[in-house]
Amino acid sequence: MFEKLNSLDDLLLHEVQDMYHAEKQVVKALPDVAEQAASPELKSALEEHLQQTKVHVKRLERVFEMLGQEPKAKKCKAMKGILDEGEDTILEKGSSETIDAAIIMSAQKVEHYEIAAYGSLAAWADMLGLQDIKQLFGQTLDEEKAADERLTELAKAGLNQRAASKQPEKQFAE
Amino acid sequence: MFEKLNSLDDLLLHEVQDMYHAEKQVVKALPDVAEQAASPELKSALEEHLQQTKVHVKRLERVFEMLGQEPKAKKCKAMKGILDEGEDTILEKGSSETIDAAIIMSAQKVEHYEIAAYGSLAAWADMLGLQDIKQLFGQTLDEEKAADERLTELAKAGLNQRAASKQPEKQFAE
User: Fold this and answer.
1) Which of A72-76, B85-89, B120-124 has the lowest mean pLDDT?
2) SS3 of residue A94 by DSSP
């Protein structure tokens, strides 16, 4: 744990090892989350993101190779916390539309963690003159941002549908 | 733990309790992080964000009140993971500029967690017709986004400074 972080190269490698563990945890978690989702659109967005996450793992393996390092996962406590908490919420009993809203928020927390991490990694790679590696981080970063935006759209659609289905109730109350 | 999430109101309250715990953890953690920072600009950004985070806690207490609920913190495993991991990295031995880069990334992971959470909370409050509460979440969301952008600027400035100071070394190597 108490390795040295003397240079930005050390920090970059440290964070690549963290994300390697983080992405692998996401690969393990996503199939169960997709199974809990009720909306077919949400289910397929999660399934597609699983395939994308597998590509992100491979991309990190390429980065290790380009750095002349063996792939090594360093336990990512942050992603573990985010996934554990998401699982706790999703496993609570509730209406399917409410669980879907909870799944979307949990998934967005995962995306945002990755956006913060790959954003820093891309900036560091740029500073270190590692342009090929910077490009790989940039690709993943763009995909995480797109996944986050898609989840926002799904959330809006779900909330609008809920609003529409509640309309007669509201009219009754007036 | 296995409460019911039958409606969006339940989920909103559940998440407010989660964020109440999360923000309080950030209030506890930030002074130590600011102390570890070497750059005076980073140190003051973290100190200002501490004051802002205390306001976010108060704002959540107002939300509890507006919902007719007692303030209650629900253990936020995700924030705990993010902060524990940040602390592990920051406590590693290294050059001050590298530790500053690590602090900025950790802080951005905190901001991004909160951006994901308050983004969902604001959308849910809107759907539930809780406009005053939506506005409070929106204010915090804007402040978290601004804090994240400030950290990105500080990261860039730090990397540029590092590049400038390495210039003679590079010329030597040519």
Assistant:
1) B85-89
2) strand
- Residues of chain A neighbouring B84 (CB-CB closer than 8 A): 77-78, 81
Q: Which of A 62-91 lie inside 8 A of B, CB atoms? A: 76-82, 84-86, 88-89, 91
ipTM: 0.91
Angle between helices A96-127 and A131-173 (to 10 degrees): 160
Bridge-partner residues for A4, per DSSP? B93
Tokens 């209030």, residue located: B27
Global pTM value: 0.92
Is any Cβ of chain B less than 8 angstroms from the Cβ of A115? yes
- The secondary structure of B10-57 as a DSSP string is HHHHHHHHHHHHHHHHHHHHHHHHHHH--SHHHHHHHHHHHHHHHHHH
Put simply, whether A36 touches B (Cβ < 8 Å) is no
Strand partners, B4: A93
d(CA B20, CA A109): 16
